[in-house]
Each structure stands twice: as structure tokens, then as C-alpha cells.
Design brief:
520 residues; Jelly Rolls; five-stranded antiparallel beta sheet; 1 helix
Length: 520
């Protein structure tokens, strides 16, 4: 069975991150992307360097790309110019945002710079209009989406560095980028001292005219959110959502039919940052909302860790655009993958997704979707211990507050075998004693309900609003309270010697709406 990184979509292309930035559909149906020529080793290089911005065109839906053509030379060779994102507005103008970085010492939390902006009349680069953004003249990290609201207003979410932490804002323009204003600061308080803490890398969606939702990356094991009732001019105090998330950004994409697509790292656990928060990004998940983000459906893995990836692989930083009326272009990047990607050699991937699969309620024998360092075949998975005498396999299924699972197993049951149900991805690193960072459970808690089958055979698991029941070969062997409102991951795990075959799997979710906790 082919081990595929990308699930439920069509792989289009891959390139170095600097060569494949955001992708947008032009009015004539072709795709446009940017390529940048920046400083060697990025902002850490203090030497002067000419830096350029290029355009690229795809005539075949993103499978192949034209040779780059010059759009712009950045004005100051001492500053490190890093493209963050752009958007083509309804009149065809291209609005591009970059970080202009003057000091970058991540280890010492020394970060200085500002937001730079350039507008072209079209993707050809006519009539460049350059400006800094005086309304928000601070260092910024990554940009993960921006919108043109129904009113025509451009609204761009940023996190900027303030007093050792990040705060979130939006800038907005009602004159096609000639002038910009900034919202209030959105502040999230935590106890971390790392510069990645606070309210980081927000994304936004317009849920109804003038009403915007902001989702925010945090170190608090959840996405947080804020609401604007005036088109991004001001934001209320942020609150936590019910959506688990490691320290990683999300993205939002509003579809023409009004639904909202969400992609994020629904992961907890390793790798931990100083044992204080999780930066686990092994798998990237997607969900769909038909009620303005009050609930989501699906929460399915769309990019996964594959055999050969490092345990701390990053499949992260999703950005999206509409490919057509129904399909989404998803770009993400990879670090620590099996091809040797690193933070100095980041790889970008572009895929095509139809989000309709996110409304499914059933999966069956989806072995190709399971994440494990063990071989997967059409007949299932033979579980054996690998590193640190640990056997581990985890699968994703449609989120359900109520549901049922049947897993057929064969062989002699290892004594330590257990089954975990969770609403987040739990990597094998969480369960490898010789590599586990001390204290991670004290920070994250125990994000799963644990079950212990007493023999091989047919394992039937059912859950309702409050209780999880495990039957083995028709006999109830365990009833336990749920640790969370619903589940979308199942883990099979054991330590020490032994072997067990997983031969058939089915999951059905009876109630698929995941209440996000977002209200407005």
C-alpha cells in the first residue's frame, strides 16, 4: 500500500518554500504565485544583499509553473525582506505584504522590524505602489490569511511583537491599499517567556456582513478567538475555543456557498517546548462549518506523518484559496520530513481539496490513513514494538459526540495493550518513556479516554453524551466516563514484547457537530 502524505485530495506540486509562496486564482482561471530571492540564511544575515520579488504562472491548475519573471526589487539591501502573503482583489490588483526585518535574534527574544506593503495593478506588476504601514509599525511574524470583505474593505490579520510577547491586530483599508488603519491590540496572557507566546498568527473570516471571527495561535493548548462587529476596526476580548491545538497557526477559507473551511494542527503532546507547551505538528487537519464557525464537521487528517519522517516532523502553516466554485487550493510546508527538510531548507506542497468529504459520518478499513511506523496493507496492520519497545498506530475518523467503532484483531493479546480515544492527534513520542520530556502530562493533562481490552477478537466501542463502553467478543468489559465531548482519533498501543494484527476497522459518528465555543 502506498504511503501517502496527502489524504482526501490531489497532490499538485512541490518546491522550496521561497519558490512557491501563496497561490491564488486569477480572473482568467490561471494560477499565480510569488517567488522571492532574499538574503542567504534569511534575516540572520546582516550583510547587504539585493533582494527581488518574482511572479509565476500556472496554466494547468498548479501542476507546473512558468519561469519566474521580475516584479520588484526591494528598496533597502540591509533589511531582510520576507514575503508573508498577498491577495488579488475583485478588480485584479495584487496586494503583497512582507516583513521588513532589521534585528532577528530568536534565542534572545530580540526581534525588530515592520510591515511593508506593495500593490500592483495586476499580476504583471504594473504601477507599483510601495509603502510601510505606519499604523502598525512593529516586527511581525507570519501572515496566514487576509480577506476582502463584502464591503470591499481589505482586512489583514497580523501578530506583532510587544514587550517580549506577540499581540494580534488587523489592519484595514477602504481605498484599495492607499491608506491603512489598525485595530486595537488583542492580548492573551500566559506564563511563558518564549517570544512565541501571547496572541500569535491570527486568521480571520467574515461570518456575516461586518462580523469577523479571529482564530489565534497560543501556547495554551487551544485555539482562541475574538470577534469584531465593525469589519475589523475593533475586537472584543479573546476567549478559548474548544478546539485542541498545539502551538501552531490555523487558516480559514470562506467558500462561495457561505461555508467556512478550517485547517489546523489538531495535535497535542510532543514535541514540547521547554516542557511547557506543545509544538506537535505531525498531522494537519481540516474541518468545515455551515453555521459561521459555531460548529465544525469532520476534523479529518489531510496531511500526515509518513514512514521515514522524523518524529518531530512539521506539517504546518496552511494557506488556502479557491481553485473554483467548489475546490480549495491548500498550500502547507514541511520541516524534518523524510527527504531531509530543515528550517533552513523548508519544502512547500500544493494540493487540491474538495471539502465535501468533511461531512461524511463513516469510514471503513482506511488503513492508508493510519499513522504508524509499521507497514500498512490492504489486510490491515501487524503491530509490533519498534523504538523503545513501543508499538503505536493511530487513525482518524469523522468527529462525533456520539458514535461507535468496530476493530477486529487477531493473535495473542500483548499484556500492556490499550486503546485510546481522543479529540486530537497523539504521536508515538508521547508514549516512548526514554524520550518523553518529563512533566508534559502536568502541562497538557491526559487528553484521552483509555480502554483495556482483555483479549483479541472483535472490539466494539460505543460512546454517548457521557459514557464510553468497550465490548470484547460480545461481552462488556469496561465502561468509563468520557474525558471530552467527542472523539475523532483512535490509538492502539502497547509496550514490550508481543504482536497483534488489526484486520478490520469501521467507525460511525452519530452526532458530527463539534461545538467550537465560538459565540457572537
Amino acid at each position: 500500500m502506498e504511503e501517502r502524505k496527502h489524504q482526501h485530495g490531489t497532490f499538485l506540486c512541490t518546491d522550496a518554500l521561497g519558490n512557491l509562496q501563496w497561490v491564488e486564482r486569477l480572473p482568467d482561471g490561471r494560477l499565480f504565485s510569488l517567488m522571492e530571492h532574499g538574503k542567504p540564511n534569511g534575516p540572520r544575515c546582516a550583510a547587504p544583499c539585493s533582494q527581488y520579488l518574482f511572479g509565476r504562472i500556472s496554466e494547468d491548475g498548479g501542476k507546473t509553473w512558468s519561469k519566474p519573471y521580475l516584479l520588484y526589487e526591494w528598496p533597502d539591501p540591509d533589511t531582510a525582506w520576507c514575503v508573508q502573503g498577498w491577495k488579488s482583489d475583485r478588480d485584479g490588483r495584487i496586494h503583497i505584504f512582507a516583513s521588513a526585518i532589521t534585528v532577528y535574534n530568536y534565542q534572545k527574544n530580540e526581534l525588530e522590524g515592520h510591515i511593508a506593503y506593495i500593490r500592483f495593478d495586476s499580476f504583471r506588476g504594473e504601477n507599483p505602489l510601495y509603502s510601510d504601514i505606519p499604523a502598525l509599525y512593529r516586527y511581525t511574524g507570519s501572515l496566514n490569511n487576509l480577506i476582502e470583505a463584502e464591503s470591499g474593505r481589505l482586512v489583514v490579520p497580523f501578530s506583532t511583537y510587544m514587550d517580549g510577547k506577540f499581540v494580534s491586530n488587523t489592519i484595514f483599508s477602504d481605498d484599495c491599499g492607499v491608506s491603512w488603519r489598525a485595530s486595537n491590540d488583542v492580548v492573551i496572557t500566559d506564563t511563558e517567556t518564549n517570544c512565541e507566546s501571547g496572541a500569535v498568527e491570527p486568521v480571520i473570516a467574515e461570518v456575516k456582513p461586518g462580523v469577523l471571527i479571529m482564530l489565534i495561535r497560543t501556547v495554551l493548548n487551544r485555539l482562541w478567538y475574538a470577534v469584531s462587529y465593525d469589519g475589523g476596526e475593533s475586537w472584543n476580548d479573546p476567549k478559548p475555543t474548544s478546539l485542541p491545538s498545539s502551538n501552531a497557526p490555523a487558516t480559514l477559507q470562506k467558500l462561495p456557498d457561505g461555508r467556512i473551511f478550517l485547517a489546523w494542527n489538531d495535535c497535542l503532546g510532543h514535541p514540547m517546548g521547554n516542557v511547557r507547551y506543545s509544538s506537535a505538528r505531525q498531522c494537519l487537519h481540516a474541518a468545515i462549518s455551515n453555521d459561521g464557525l459555531r460548529t465544525i464537521h469532520g476534523a479529518r487528517i489531510i496531511v500526515k506523518k509518513v514512514i521515514g519522517d522524523r518524529n518531530d516532523v512539521h506539517n504546518a502553516y496552511p494557506t488556502t484559496a479557491m481553485a473554483n466554485e467548489k475546490e480549495i487550493l491548500l498550500k502547507h510546508f514541511e520541516v524534518n520530513g523524510r527527504l531531509g527538510t530543515t528550517w533552513n531548507a523548508v519544502q512547500a506542497y500544493l494540493t487540491l481539496l474538495n471539502p465535501d468529504f468533511l461531512t461524511e459520518a463513516d469510514v471503513r478499513d482506511n488503513w492508508a490513513e493510519w499513522v504508524s511506523d509499521l507497514e500498512k496493507t490492504e489486510r490491515g496492520i501487524v503491530m509490533r514494538p519498534t523504538d523503545d519497545d513501543t508499538a503505536h498506530a493511530i487513525c482518524n475518523f469523522p468527529y462525533g459526540t456520539k458514535g461507535r467503532i468496530t476493530l477486529k484483531t487477531a493473535g495473542k493479546m500483548p499484556h500492556s495493550c490499550r486503546v485510546l480515544l481522543s479529540d486530537c492527534y497523539l504521536d508515538r513520542l508521547n508514549f516512548m518513556p526514554n524520550r518523553r520530556a518529563e512533566g508534559y502530562e502536568e502541562v497538557i493533562g491526559t487528553p484521552y479516554t483509555e480502554l483495556k481490552p482483555d483479549s483479541a477478537g472483535i472490539w466494539e466501542i460505543a460512546w454517548d453524551e457521557s459514557t464510553v463502553t468497550l465490548c470484547v467478543n460480545g461481552t462488556i468489559v469496561q465502561k468509563k466516563p468520557k474525558h471530552s465531548h467527542g472523539f475523532n482519533h483512535l490509538t492502539v498501543l502497547f509496550h514490550g514484547k508481543g504482536e497483534i494484527n488489526l484486520t478490520a476497522f469501521s467507525a460511525h459518528s452519530d452526532a458530527t457537530a463539534w461545538e467550537t465555543g465560538i459565540s457572537y
